[in-house]
Hints:
The chain has a domain of 59 residues. Helix content is 24%, strand content 40%.
Amino acid sequence: MINDIISKIGKSINEEFGEDYTIYSENMPQNFDTSCFFVECVRYSRNKAVSRGNRFFVSSMFTVTYFPDESNLCQNEEIWDIADRLFDALEYIDGYSGDNLKAEFSDGRLIVIVSYDFQAVKETAKNYMNGLKQNGGMR
């Protein structure tokens, strides 16, 4: 479930920014290219719904960190433009509605935080009948 959301976040960022930006969701290499994004889940919880045993409330928080090109002299302008575009890209991603969007600039990078809260159903194997035994005969 979380890996699916990370993948959809990456797809949404790619649709908004194009192929010019690298998107990482695992460990970043030592000498990574700047002007890239790093997507990670920082909080995930799942609580049973009261009414049904197979329904859950899922709460998840993700950060998208943007590392700007260090040679750009107008980083402040670029950072807040990227933040606005990320807000647009992360607000709705393929069936999930993001809220509590926040952005902060720290240590030369932009960090955007978004939460996705939703209900999920845990799939269980359904066994309607174990078997049928017939007694009797024809008349």
